[in-house]
Design brief:
alpha+beta, seven-stranded mixed β-sheet, five-stranded mixed β-sheet, 18 helices, globular
Length: 618
Amino acid sequence: MKKQTLLYALIILAFNCAEEKKETPTTLKYVKESHSNAKPNEAVIKHLDLDIVVDFETQVIDGKATYTIESTNASEIVLDTKYLDIISTEADGKPAEFKLEPFNKQLGQALRIPISEDTKQITIHYKTTDKTEALQWLSPQQTADKTNPFLFTQGQAILTRTWIPIQDSPQIRITYNAKVVVPKDLMAVMSAENPKEKSADGVYHFKMKQPISPYLIALAVGDIEYKPVSKRTGVYAEKSMIDKAQAEFIDMEKMVAAAENLYGAYDWDQFDVIVLPPSFPFGGMENPRLTFATPTVIAGDKSLTSLIAHELAHSWSGNLVTNATWDDFWLNEGFTVYFEIRIMEALYGKDRANMIALIGRQDLEEEVEGFKDEPDMTKLKLNLSDKNPDDGMNSIAYDKGYLFLRTLEETVGREKMDAFLKSYFKTNAFSTVTTEGFIDYLNSNLLEPNNITFNVNEWIYQPGIPDNQSIIVSNKFENAENTLQSFLDAKSVDVSKTKDWTTQEWVHFIRNFPETITTDDLARLDTAFNFTNASNSHIAMVWYEQAINHNYHGNGVDQKIEDFLIRVGRRWYVSTLFKAFKKADKVDEALVIYKKSRPNYHSVTANTIDALLGYDGN
């Protein structure tokens, strides 16, 4: 009888606990942020099943997005949309009357779908439009092989909402499955488990089992092939590029091994790279399992592959541990530059690592000068509430963030720094972190246990560069400066002095031209080294910048600059050259070129140059 009574009591207790649990909603903890309409503390998406058809003739994606959701007894769920045609919505399979809020130029339109406390799933039927900013539809002529069209997405920072209705905040992590239908002679790949060969019917199925932020959902469709580098690394590219890409990125497995040796296991199973057409707006984009890369890094000598190390490093800093808001963007990029340079040092030595770091330091100096009228933009922790988050994607986040971590390493010692970072990535894996959360973790796990004082708040919350910054030096750069001066003094060039120079040495050499350099000096250097026709995109870019700065017109450089700007859509390169035109009071000349090149640019690049040149479409 006692056993029965006890059993009965336990049953009653369990029932009451279950009822109490049902009545007391789970507390969801997301920080307030200004770049999403979502209210994740009330109702949040957890998993996406995406079913889309990619139509190149109409340049439209026709889709159905079904979400598994969690809520705290909310009466509605709010998603982000921008330039989407929302056709209908459902809640648990039943029609639901949705509401779209008025359009906001930056955020788009909030999509409100009514739900009950028991709603587990919502479905949205939609189509993209000709204003969709994440998508770039390319004609065959805009591709490498020039035989088939191409499509790629770019979601960072807040553009995923322009091709998928979603809660577009980096702190909201979801898993996803997708069915993608494309023309049968093309292949589709995503930031997920990917095919290695084309399907016979143009239907592809994808699975991303690790939870990721919405900006990392990515799609590319084109006439592409796959070649492995190792069991867990490989490249996708068009046929004419595939062998070059494989050869250029042959060290990918070594990079992954070096990264794991530093900061722990690679948690994404596969690390592949797809080389996109040249209109891709960034050097690379760290989409999980499938980094998107610009063809401008294919130099033929692996000299620009630090970009691949950078995107790989994002597999820890950015994808695994993600900035909670775009005000915390430096947590993604500063850590990644630090990690990238450590990978490069492990593989290619300290000299090359320091040269890469010094070029970043030069970029930082220029960025700080550019923000002299907006000093708050040189803080690591930003306030972008009234700005596009793209405004914070510059050298401050990348190179000041790196300099902070390098200075911290030199203060605490590399051994302690590495142990701290390895613990940081492991502890915060598959979650998001605010700047304040990082500072708390830093104090509790590195500074206080080791009784170390460091000016963390000055680095993060104050403008400019603190005085205790790490001083980066390079004997090779000093040699490049001395070699340049000897050429200018002698009015002649001894090419043997530059034998076996790396890309970084050439970039430093060109960047250090004195203000007083003459067009005769430039012509002499161009004749000796044929800079105007450089096949290395980074060298070409800095040379073209100097040609604009110093009014050099020899060797057909003006046409080469125009050709470069029409062919290449990488925002860093494009904005550098258009800034040079503007600085040289040649805006009219720049606009003539821009009107020709703009149709080849992704919206990310075009929006930047529109603002820079004051272009309004006329």
